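FAQ: What does the model actually see?

It sees only this:
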Amino acid sequence: MNVMIIANSPLQRFGLSKLITERFEDVLVESAEELYGSGKDEVGAAREIVILCLYPSSPLRENLEKLEAVSGRYPAARILVMENTAEKESFENLQAYLNSGISGFLTTASPLDMFDDCLRKLMAGQKYLSPHALEWLLDTAFLNKEVHKLTLTSRESYVARQLAEGLTVSQIAKETNRKVSTISTIKRNVFRKTNTDNIIKLRELVLNAGIRGA
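And it is asked to produce this:
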């Protein structure tokens, strides 16, 4: 089994390489800072699994461009996106990654047993999403369908849940590495789309829809 790790952080490349080689047998692990960081690499070279480490604070378009480049470079590989999050799992970009054809998604806040399960499934040719990620997808789909049958983006759905749980705009901005003005704009869009004008009404709407925070 051949695994390629693409990560900007040398510490992350070393840590993931060591973790994989210690926990899995017969696995060859290679790593690079960027997609074309290895001069020995050949276009289309066999890579069965590629772990692409991304930062949710980076523009989504930039992350999707990196993902597209990896898919083009290793078309037969199963791609695991690992987002660098400080403390709490975040699934804000998950739907966009899934639309791009990834095989698995984890964050650096994911427990080690989830990492093991994910690698085993990918090695077996399967796909993997954690229970938390699956729950988030179901919640988002339900919210998008039921809240006045208006489509909220994944980011708007996330902000709606966080607001309903009592987080302030500043707290959400800090948690998501976004500007306060950006979250304020998203909040206004959520109020407009859900036909609410305050947090109390939004919380009631979210709770009635059966939505729980990710």
